[in-house]
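A.,

Following up on our hallway conversation. Structure tokens first:
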């Protein structure tokens, strides 16, 4: 499409850079999802893989060097400092799964309500884990990251709602086709990074007023 310049001649309209940048970020999230899936194969490494994915996307969006080597360096650092987090996540998942298995039996009173509560707890726990992974850095401890994640989950209600929606979409798409869990995991990490950046921007605006 062309536009008329002041001298009367036509000039080609430049495409919006926002579209290209947004599509490049989306592609980076999909690629990061593949890296996350490879790192999370042992299952116990899921928190470390999520932290590395979030840190990679943080670096990408902030214009810092972001590469395959950087991802695996962050993954190793997150695993060394947080392998207990991986064990805790597996334990919590097994407990919630056992609860759902019991509720699947006939004759359990209040099954719908307890099942809904179990799914709600699982979604909130996943949201806290996403926030903690987005807060993690090699210089910080996982304990501090989770403390910040719990606080932000309470205070940043809109961000928590965004992440809960992302978790719901992830669960629905994975239920429909399990292979979609690979790219969607990268998108979920990207959502956690976006919520973190949104909160920091809003905090900076409030401080400047």
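Then the amino acids I'd put at each of the 209 positions:
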């Amino acid at each position: 499409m062309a536009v008329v310049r002041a001298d009367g001649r036509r000039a080609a309209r430049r495409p919006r850079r926002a579209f290209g940048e947004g599509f490049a970020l989306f592609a980076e999230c999909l690629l990061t999802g593949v890296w996350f899936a490879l790192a999370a194969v042992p299952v116990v490494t899921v928190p470390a893989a999520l932290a590395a994915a979030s840190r990679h996307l943080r670096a990408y969006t902030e214009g810092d060097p972001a590469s395959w080597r950087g991802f695996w360096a962050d993954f190793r650092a997150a695993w060394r400092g947080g392998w207990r987090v991986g064990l805790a996540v597996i334990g919590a998942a097994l407990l919630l799964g056992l609860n759902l298995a019991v509720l699947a039996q006939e004759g359990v009173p209040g099954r719908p309500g307890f099942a809904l509560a179990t799914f709600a707890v699982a979604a909130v726990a996943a949201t806290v884990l996403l926030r903690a992974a987005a807060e993690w850095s090699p210089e910080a401890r996982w304990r501090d990251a989770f403390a910040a994640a719990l606080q932000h989950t309470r205070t940043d209600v809109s961000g928590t709602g965004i992440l809960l929606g992302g978790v719901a979409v992830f669960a629905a798409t994975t239920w429909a086709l399990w292979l979609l869990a690979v790219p969607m995991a990268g998108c979920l990490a990207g959502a956690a990074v976006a919520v973190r950046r949104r909160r920091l921007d809003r905090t900076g605006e409030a401080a400047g007023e």
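Strands lie at 2-4, 10-12. Curious whether your intuition agrees with the design.

B.
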